[in-house]
Amino acid sequence: MSKFGLDALIPSTPQSENPSILRDVRAMHSEAPSWKDLKIGDRIRIVKIPSVFAESHYHNGDWDETFALYRDLILRNMVVTVCEIDGAGRPWIEFDSLDADGNIASNSLAVDDDSWVFAETNQTGRG
């Protein structure tokens, strides 16, 4: 059993019968890219709420809208493109969503966290 319990992702296939699948699953989880490596044009998918939201000071209501944006991107399984790198080196994405009244709202998020993966196909050849 790996230290991450990844063997359980392939329950009916013993490791000795298909080691390449297990190796690929381990690689997906152990070689997470850094947001610092993102470039303008990279296509990514938000796949989880950032770990930082587990910290208590994010539960005071000020971050509810940001949390909802992450949740929306995850549920929509949306591929977004890095459109800007700011002066602090943080990559930003822009996307549209529906607000509470059903109107289209333009949004942007800095992707300086562990919430994302490269999309399967990438215009810059990465991912």
Indicate the topology:
Layout: H1 19-30, E1 43-46, H2 64-76, E2 79-85, E3 91-98, E4 104-110, E5 116-118
Describe this structure in words.
- The chain has 127 residues and is α+β, with helices and mostly antiparallel strands.
- It folds into two domains: 1-31, no CATH class; 35-118, no CATH class.
- The protein is 20% helix and 23% strand.
- It has two helices and five strands; from the N terminus they run H-E-H-E-E-E-E.
- It has helices spanning 19-30, 64-76; strands at residues 43-46, 79-85, 91-98, 104-110, 116-118.
- A five-stranded antiparallel beta sheet has the order 4-3-2-1-5.
- A hairpin with a 5-residue loop joins strand 3 and strand 4 (104-110).
- It is globular.
- Residues 1-30 and 122-127 have low confidence and may be disordered.
Features:
single chain, 2 domains, alpha+beta
Largest sheet: 5 strands, antiparallel
Arrangement of strands in the largest sheet: 4-3-2-1-5
Low-confidence stretches: 1-30, 122-127
β-strand amount: 15-25%
Straight-line distance between termini: 28 Å
Order of helices and strands: HEHEEEE
What is the strand tally?
5
Percent helix: 10-25%
Structural class: alpha+beta
Rg is 17 Å
Helix run count: 2
